[in-house]
Amino acid sequence: MEIIAKAPASCGELVEGVLNETPFLVTAPISMYAVATVSDAFPGMHGLGAKAEAAVARTLSHIGKETLPFGIRLDSAIPQGKGMASSSADIAAVSYATARALGRELTAQEIMDIAIAIEPSDGIAFAGLSHVSHTTGKLFGQYFNVPLLAVSIFDVGGTVDTIAYYRSKGNSGNHDEVYRQLLDTVDQAFRTRDLQQEALLGQAATASARLNQVHLEKPKLEEFITAAQRQGALGTLVAHSGTVVGVLWASDLSAVDMAQQTSELAAEFEATYHYMQTVRLISGGVVCEIRP
User: Fold this and answer.
1) pLDDT tens digit string along 241-274?
2) Nearest Cα to Cα of residue 128 among 114, 113, 108, 110
């Protein structure tokens, strides 16, 4: 028997801020994954860090079980400390796989609650793009039929401790009206379609990236945004509590053109922005495969 649960990374957040003294974000899940495998073919825990192990323990307590009578392995392609939801994806994957192996199918909210008890969570367990509080776990809304925007990921270097960052940032803010407008832009995007939808998402992401500069500055961000727009990008998003920056390209842009434009951008900013890879914006949520 094998239970294989796969949870996506994120390239930062589409939007993040504080509204009515409550921190919130709109997720940006991408096609990069943490994969948890629960199996009766091997014993013990393999590849789980402290947070993932804590997630297994909390999941067992949540479903009223004392032990996991199977082995569990975690494999992840997600870099740590970059603001790419590595811990959130690990927690989501191992929590779902643990519960499913014991006859329970966790909801996204249950996974989020387990994650929040460990650290602030990106909300990638929810389907679609989700508007959530990453500190309380409350879900405010979801957006489905996510456009498959291409995202070229760049890294400005270093790592960020998520827990320490949010502790220092706090819950205060004086941009309530601005963030309401950004959420309205996201709402409007999902009431439209095709290129207009994608352009509005790029617009919201770029505005949020600029607002976050006072909290966690990305070097030469304004110059990078301008250069990306010159290359035809729809917008720029950032890891608001991390080090990565994503360039959003229209879903219908050819792979050849996207590679060329990304290469030119990488060459222009090679001293500051290290190109990592290009992925797609996708729907969030845990995907599970069960093998006899």
Assistant:
1) 999 999 999 999 999 999 999 999 999 999 999 9
2) 108
Distance set, CA 267 to CA 95, 179, 232 (Å) = 41, 33, 16
The whole-number mean pLDDT for each consecutive block of 10 residues of the chain, a chain of 292 residues, reads 98 96 96 98 97 98 97 97 97 98 97 96 96 96 96 95 69 80 97 93 98 95 98 97 97 96 97 97 98 91
Q: Are residues 148 and 217 in the same domain?
A: yes
How is residue 133 written in tokens? 């509080």
Residues 59 and 94 in one domain: yes
168: left (phi over 0), alpha (psi -120 to 50) or beta: alpha
- Cα distance between residue 102 and residue 104, in whole Å: 6
Q: Cβ–Cβ contacts within 10 Å for residue 206, how many?
A: 21
pTM, whole model, 2 decimals?
0.94
CA distance 52 to 36: 10
DSSP for 255-277 reads: HHHHHHHHHHHHHHTTTT-EEEE
Domain range for 107 is 2-142+283-291
